[in-house]
Amino acid sequence: MSDLLIRGADVLGEGTAHVLVVDGRIAAVGAAAAADAPSGVERLDADGLTLLPGFVDLHTHLREPGREDAETIASGSRAAAVGGYTAVLAMANTSPVTDTAEAAERILDLGRAAGLVDVVPIGAVTKGLEGHELAELGLMHRSRARVSVFSDDGHCVADGRVMRRALEYVRAFGGVVSQHSQDPALAGPQACCHEGELSGRLGLPGWPPVAEASIIARDAMLARHTRSRVHVAHVSTAEGLDVVRWAKAQGIAMTAEVAPHHLALGTELLSGYDPVYKVNPPLRPTEDQEALRAGLADGSIDAVATDHAPHARHDKEHAFVDAAFGMLGLETAFSVVHDLMVRTGRMSMADLARVMSTGPAAVAGLTGHGRPIAAGEPATLVLVDPTAPVTVDRATSQSLSRNTPWHGARLTGAVHTTILRGAVTAREGEPTAC
Amino acid sequence: MRHLLSSADLTRDDVRMLLATAAEMHEVQHRDVKKLPTLRGRTIINLFFEDSTRTRSSFEIAGKWMSADTINITGKGSSTSKGESLRDTVMTIDAMSVDCVVIRHMASGSAHQVSQWVDASVVNAGDGTHEHPTQALLDAYTMEQRLGSLEGRRVAIVGDLTHSRVFRSNAITLRTLGAHVTLVAPPTLMPSGITAWAAADGLELTDDLDAVLASGPDAVMMLRVQRERMSGGFFPTPREYTVGFGLTRERLRALTAANPEAVICHPGPMNRGLEISADAADAAQSLVLDQVSAGVAVRMAVLYHLLAGEEVAA
Ligand SMILES: [Zn+2]
């Protein structure tokens, strides 16, 4: 089933239009699409809905292999489809780590078996994420998984020499290193909170913003030196963003992503020591949130990435410093970004498509995602309802975990239908079996 | 009062009431038979994930003197163990229908978290580098015994502020009682964001201990320097720390010259020769042993108001 007539959607750049999908591709857009539609084709009434290219997440933790109690590639794929995603990049910090061609191919295959989104493995930069020896970057790239994004996420590649070699190495095949920018020496092993007045009062060891900015600055210089490409994962501070802007102005091949929670949630939420708000990098003060919103709107930040980090309940029910880092993100990202940035007039819907689809697809080098809505292009799309109210309920999450900070939040803007190469993968909060 | 988690939970009236009760309890300590029936039938768990003979035995004696059943549980519950979650551990204990959990844990905020999971009253007996409210109460009690009201008195708190729960609770309680508080520490041991925090809470900041002593404060509270901080890059050498921030014999003399009534506090255990000289620790102005003695009375007062207050009044 890959033929579909989407009737009367608000199509970016086209106004209200019909879109005919045949054999997984867009056959026609506009009035002619309805006329060309074969009789009996499935019709999808999209009155009041907006049609965008499907979302791409540069930063997803799927926990398989190793922690299938927290998430599997299948459950994460369901969450992604429901959230409007058609591709997710799966971070390498699984157990075992994705640091070989075989491990990458296994994730690719499990993603295909789930069949709801393109699950694209990210390869580790260093063996075992230990930061010392390069993983088999070239073999991972040459594998069926065609790995081109590499990251030790969860850890910073702190050793400048290792980072330099990684950048030199991936340049040969157009790869990119996604860096968890955080100098571990500037924080200490127990850091779990933004360093500032609140961390001082709460007695929580903090990460100063300079731990982020200084690594971004170093990596910018290394990217320039190696003429290679570096991507800043989850930038969280105004200082870090300043360096990204500087690097871009210099013509350095640096891109950056921001997580919805860093845009929307402030460090003050930690005052109750609730580990649901414990993320790495940490929630920052209002000034940083404002800077990130501005950076996303003006194009300094290329992508919204969820850093979807499912955790079993018992891994969050420790004392704050001992609890696991991370929160869910795939199912709520669109609503959060839409509510915060588009509904308020900070960004247009076209901007949203740039930061949630075309921008991240470009960073990851995905040619089948983030495409224009035009005849001949893959029908990899999402229909969203900009006016629908959403009340987040963690009980209805497709994830195996429940660690969402948005539980009970009322937002405006919902994902309606997700379409991967002509096949509907989710409709109104429910994934479809493919 | 349901829990005692932070010194900030206590109003001035609360503190006054607790200190008044502590004074009554202190009398009991001087009786031949140190036993009140007040908490008969009540069960108190001392849940100590971190060693502290001093604080644990102080709570234990406080409970026993009021006829409560007190049980000590010492856990490993490390900062890195991935075993049983804190919630599971605590829920097991709560399922035994205890009335009060006195918790000491190496993680900041743990007492606060535990209070949201259990039905029992929770007393924070020290959570990481966050707070230690009963220590602040016993310090206030001890100082008042010697100085009278702390309203308008000047107290200097000296040393490793960053890692000190004693400092955090004391700064709050002393301000609640109307004292002026000056914080003295090297810049590396000042908590992050302290400038804004101090401005908001009316605390003064300095790294010049000599100037503070010369101004004749009414009390000087020396904080313990943890051994593990000495190699943590917070200060170059113990010798340099002592020269800058130790209460040496010379500084004791300077303090006494500036204010003959001034008292010295230390939460113990002391590093003699590092943050405090033997002369200062053993001086007539030193309240160190009074602090220990007051600890039991203050904890009796806290347990009394948490567990017996209403019924006794009724
Ligand atoms: Zn990360």
Automatic annotation (TrEMBL), chain A:
PROSITE patterns: DIHYDROOROTASE_2. Binds 2 Zn(2+) ions per subunit. Its EC number is 3.5.2.3. It comes from Phycicoccus duodecadis. GO terms for cellular component: cytoplasm. It catalyses: (S)-dihydroorotate + H2O = N-carbamoyl-L-aspartate + H(+). SUPFAM superfamilies: Composite domain of metallo-dependent hydrolases, Metallo-dependent hydrolases. This is Dihydroorotase. CDD domains: DHOase_IIa. The active site is at D307. Belongs to the metallo-dependent hydrolases superfamily. DHOase family. Class I DHOase subfamily. Gene3D superfamilies: Metal-dependent hydrolases, Urease, subunit C, domain 1. Pfam families: DHOase.
UniProtKB/TrEMBL annotation, chain B:
It catalyses: carbamoyl phosphate + L-aspartate = N-carbamoyl-L-aspartate + phosphate + H(+). InterPro entries: Asp/Orn_carbamoyltranf_P-bd, Asp/Orn_carbamoylTrfase, Asp/Orn_carbamoylTrfase_sf, Asp_carbamoyltransf, Asp_carbamoyltransf_Asp/Orn-bd. Residues 2-144 form the Aspartate/ornithine carbamoyltransferase carbamoyl-P binding domain. PROSITE patterns: CARBAMOYLTRANSFERASE. Its EC number is 2.1.3.2. Keywords: Pyrimidine biosynthesis, Transferase. GO terms for molecular function: amino acid binding; aspartate carbamoyltransferase activity. Residues 152-306 form the Aspartate/ornithine carbamoyltransferase Asp/Orn-binding domain. Signal peptide: none annotated. The keyword Transferase applies. Pathway: Pyrimidine metabolism; UMP biosynthesis via de novo pathway; (S)-dihydroorotate from bicarbonate: step 2/3. GO terms for biological process: 'de novo' pyrimidine nucleobase biosynthetic process; 'de novo' UMP biosynthetic process; amino acid metabolic process. One of its GO terms (cellular component) is cytosol. L-aspartate binds at K82, R165, R224. It is an enzyme of class 2 (transferase). The keyword Transmembrane does not apply. Catalyzes the condensation of carbamoyl phosphate and aspartate to form carbamoyl aspartate and inorganic phosphate, the committed step in the de novo pyrimidine nucleotide biosynthesis pathway. Belongs to the aspartate/ornithine carbamoyltransferase superfamily. ATCase family. Heterododecamer (2C3:3R2) of six catalytic PyrB chains organized as two trimers (C3), and six regulatory PyrI chains organized as three dimers (R2). PANTHER family: ASPARTATE CARBAMOYLTRANSFERASE, ORNITHINE CARBAMOYLTRANSFERASE, MITOCHONDRIAL. HAMAP family: Asp_carb_tr. This is Aspartate carbamoyltransferase. It comes from Phycicoccus duodecadis. The gene is pyrB.
